[in-house]
Amino acid sequence: MTDGRKYFIIGFAVGGVSLIISFLLRVFAGGLFIPELAAQTVFSLMPGSVESQAVETLGPLAKQLTFAGAIVGNLFLYGELAVLLHGTYRKLADKGYFVNIVQLSLLSYLALFALAGIMLEVTQFQSQPLPISLIALYLLPPHIAFGFILYLKFRREIAGSESVKQISTGLQSGTDLGRRKFLNIAVAGAVGAAILFFGAGFLLPKSTKSPDQGSQQAEPSNSDEKSENVALASLLVSEITPTDRFYRVDVNILTPTINSDAWKLSVRGLVNNPLEVTYEELKSLPAVEEYATLECISNKIGEDLISTALWKGVPLKTILEKVQVKPEATYVVFKCYDGYDVGIPLERAEGTILAYEMNASTLPQAHGFPLRAVVPGLYGMMNAKWITDIELVEMVYEGFWQRQGWANNAEYQIHSTIVSPGGALTARFGDLGSSKFVLGEKVPIAGIAFAGDKGVSKVELSMDEGKTWEAARIAEPLSKNAWVLWSTEWSPPAAGRYRVIVRATDGTGKIQKSELQNPFPSGSTGYHGVNITVEA
């Protein structure tokens, strides 16, 4: 093995130790974790069309792979630094341990500090925004450790210790000892990377649980009435999505953590009375509760990025009345702790809730604690989380995703989904059974339909490729902003394989589009269908 390769592997492995220390500081002290910042920088620079394709292809794995790639990239950087630092160490080896540890630590520290500074200039996000003084402080411990361990490795080599001689002899003669040493160092680096990636798992979005692993949730008032419909019974259990199964999509690798005691909401811009309120002051204002469905604009027809919860908070209208909005204002801009920003038309303030509770419990960190917006009629990207500032402006405002190419007029597309049979939306409703039936028995079919704040007036199904349509029964929704459950029972005329498709009509009489359209830039369209097998 060449010297350069050997020192690279040493740096790669020692860098794993440095990253573990940095990660622990991020988790327990809110420090800066370079791979997290690197991944968010990638997201900031990625065009919306590319991001959409990545999410469509890989789903949540796209974010995790980016994070893993950033970790590996950081380890490779440490490997290259070790090669460089070994050269400087040989020149200063006789200066004593203090000088050597300082130079080994300082050069790596300055390199990572400079890299962090560049990324902070480029990225629009930082899950844990920090002043430059704290960033400088948090980078010190991992790089002191990096320099110290490198010093121990390099000193042994220069001193000609017996173990290093054995490694050198083994490498020259091709003995198994040399190979073992090489593999041990490589494995150490790989294990360090794995610990970092999988150790972050408890902070990354968790896998969804099945419906029988229930969590606290609010109960719909009309559940008894709906439960009379057998076809709907399996959906009723999760008509309100338990908080631990509510979908989550955001730009953050690790969840932002905010101290509510230090948090304040600032309302400014084109207002007569700028306002700043604390968390407790906000919660003391008159509140409202409403069931509302949120859906990610990246959601494809028949997929799971849609959920319904009971939200409690202060009407945005109440806050705007307090600050007295000036006549020239046209947009309300939400600015968030992590750097995210988005704007909604001023008229959308009517009905918008600044929510601090979800399903009768304090809003979780993953869903925007201490404050998020719930905006009727607009896709999830317009429903900002971790809000710190509200600004009134006079122009049409394009937020982060809009600057990446996504639609600014992000009204929900009308759509409907067959949940049972067929297995759609399993992350929200669980696996509701087989798609095989016996001739002579009725086939129960049920699902959801959603059209934002326009409501759903009709749901129809077709068993003959859209030639004819039959209306399904629609249950009373939890609110005008929630999905509706629908159901029907169908008697197959003969054994065989059938394709069942569904369409919905919103409250204004508009029928959902049949043309299949990918999410970017305005949300998915198209009919959802399932295959049903009827056996003789």
- The CA-CA distance between the termini, in Å, is 69 Å
Please, how many domains? Answer: 3
The SS-based structural class is: alpha+beta
Q: What is the tally of beta strands?
A: 19
Major pleated sheet? 5 strands, mixed
Number of helical segments with 4 or more residues: 15
As a percent range, the share of strand residues is: 15-25%
Q: What does this protein look like?
A:
- The protein is α+β, with helices and mostly antiparallel strands.
- It has 3 domains: 3-202, no CATH class; 223-403, Alpha-Beta Complex (Sulfite Oxidase, Chain A, domain 2), CATH 3.90.420; 415-535, Sandwich (Immunoglobulin-like).
- It has helices spanning 3-29, 34-45, 48-58, 61-92, 97-122, 132-138, 140-159, 162-173, 176-199, 223-227, 230-236, 279-283, 316-323, 400-403, 426-429, and strands at 264-269, 275-278, 288-295, 306-315, 331-336, 341-345, 353-358, 361-362, 372-374, 387-393, 415-420, 436-438, 443-450, 456-462, 470-471, 473-474, 484-490, 496-506, 528-535.
- The strands form 4 sheets. The protein has a 5-stranded mixed β-sheet with strand order 2-1-10-5-6. Strands 3, 4, 7, 8 and 9 form a 5-stranded antiparallel β-sheet that branches. A 5-stranded mixed β-sheet has the order 12-19-18-14-15, with no helix packed on it.
- Strand 1 and strand 2 (275-278) form a beta hairpin.
- Helix 5 (97-122) crosses helix 7 (140-159) and helix 8 (162-173) packs across helix 9.
- The longest helix has 32 residues, at 61-92.
- The chain is globular and about 90 Å long.
- The termini are far apart.
- The model is unreliable at 161-218 and 221-228 (pLDDT under 50).
